[in-house]
Amino acid sequence: MRQIRALRVAAVAAGIALMATGCGATGKSSTGTESSGAAAGPITGLQIMVPNTPGGGYDTTARAAAKVLDDEKIANNTEVFNLAGAGGTVGLARVVNEKGNGDLTMLMGLGVVGASYTNKSQSKLTDTTPLAKLIEEPGAIMVSKDSPYKTIDDLVKAWKADPASISVGGGSSPGGPDHLLPMQLAGAVGIDATKVNFVSYDGGGDLLPAILGNKLGFAASGAGEYLEQIKSGEVRVLATSGEKRLEGVDAPTLKESNIDLVFSNWRGVVAPPGISDSDKQSLIAALEKMHESAGWKEALKTHSWTDAFVTGDEFKKFLTDQDKRVADVLTKLGLA
Question: What are 197's strand-pairing partners?
Fold first, then answer.
């Protein structure tokens, strides 16, 4: 946990706001005969690494994907494991260093893009093999059930009166989605971002106890990873940041609340560099089958995710563009 220096927070918010609008994956048969990836049966030995703590958005998305892959017989015994640290860059380094490993994938998103620069990681997402962008997700402004703030208007009024006195929690590093949302919200309601007291947690799993313990003025993150607590009433959503209301979440959008802001995060899957064409095609084919399945459509609905599926070269171009825009902004600000 750390408080971000106010001047740097303001600069990052202003600059990056533009961005927001018994075998492996080669498909060997059980007899050991290798077939082409796209034409093969269920893949086995697949690992999905989550680069932050259990319970966060990456973790929830990875486990939902693994369940559908297995339930739909697209893969067998898919393993999900967590390797947290440094905003996702510990996991990123693992992926980049496992060159040619066609069994390993990583669930990632905008937060890892920013963290790779703010944490001065030697590994970048452009070093990986992009497989697919899966979802987009609006953010949510959340408080505990014991919070004095009952509406977004209550919060904004108190925040504007004394911005530094209200701590704002997020499950991402500087430049990540949970950081960008409250910084842009501050600007939208007329708060000087240099006075915002932002506290960073390494993923939603670490952020949740701070929300439940009423240790924060409010939190900004994706609602999907807190639906259980939202439904039970332990977490109260004051507003969401999408164009439309989130199904199953009884809260207005920021725009409905006369706050001119729309913001969405995204998540996708990458593999190590240097994997074979057969492995790459096998993994993309598996994700395409997953995307087409009834199980995945149900997962999108359950977690209030927006379908944003693109694969291969289209995702590679998207990821390259995102990386360049983050790098350009953070370099100019002296943060990269």
Answer: 167
Which residue, 244, 232, 239, 267, is CA-closest to 182? Answer: 239
| Integer Cα distance of 142 and 149 in angstroms | 10
Six-digit token string for 89: 């860059």
Here the tokens at position 125 are 């997402």
- For residue 181, the SS3 value is helix
Q: Is the pLDDT of residue 28 over 80?
A: no
* Model-wide pTM > 0.85: no
The sign of the dihedral angle between the CA atoms of 285, 95, 180, 178 is positive
What's residue 21's pLDDT? 42
Token duo for residue 24: 């492996």
- Distance CA(261)–CA(255), nearest Å, equals 6
Rounded Cα distance between 173 and 187, Å, is: 19
Q: What's the number of CA atoms in the CB half-sphere (13 Å) around residue 163?
A: 17
CA atoms within 13 A on the CB side of 285: 20
**Residue percentage of the chain with pLDDT more than 70:** 85
pLDDT bucket at 1, cuts 50 / 70 / 90: very low
pLDDT in tens, 179-190: 888 988 998 999
H-only helix segments in 24-109: 57-71, 89-97
